[in-house]
Design goal:
Elements: H1 14-39, H2 41-88, H3 91-118, H4 121-136, H5 138-158
Length: 159
């Protein structure tokens, strides 16, 4: 047996001796549990994976929120630039644009009718699916168009 540490008094009675033995057993049990937990690689790996997963989810939510904020800023900026560009156009140009839009609409209607008359059925179905997809993702298309307008306006401003 080992000698008791010098700072601990030795047991005088059998009852004190039993208490010291029980206390030593409890401390030994806690030490063994702590060592077992440290050697349980699978549990420690799972804990670390859960922690990393939680951090990644939090970061993804943060980035998603930042992205949505940036999109809103870009929409507002594109809208402002479009209004500025429209306000700077002289009345004759606006009239010509409106007239060209009407002509384009009429030609598009004629082309659409010609398409319906001449295009094979499978091609018309695929085209209809593409049109539906564009309608379903209208916001994405509008944002892309806004970005294109911004780029065009910025490029034109540099000249």
């Amino acid at each position: 047996m080992t000698q008791p540490p010098h700072d601990e008094p030795t047991a005088v009675t059998p009852e004190e001796l039993r208490e010291q033995v029980e206390q030593t057993r409890a401390e030994l049990g806690q030490t063994v549990e702590a060592l077992a937990a440290k050697t349980d690689v699978k549990a420690r790996t799972q804990e670390k994976a859960a922690e990393v997963k939680q951090q990644a989810a939090a970061k993804a939510a943060e980035l998603k929120e930042q992205g949505a904020h940036k999109v809103d800023e870009m929409k507002a900026k594109a809208s402002g630039l479009a209004h500025q560009a429209q306000d700077k156009l002289p009345a004759p140009v606006k009239d010509k644009v409106a007239q060209a839009a009407e002509q384009t609409s009429a030609k598009a209607g004629q082309a659409g009718q010609l398409w319906q008359d001449k295009a094979p059925e499978p091609v018309r179905l695929k085209t209809a699916q593409g049109v539906q997809m564009a309608r379903d993702h209208r916001k994405v298309l509008l944002v892309a168009a806004g970005v294109a307008v911004l780029a065009w306006v910025a490029f034109r401003g540099q000249e």
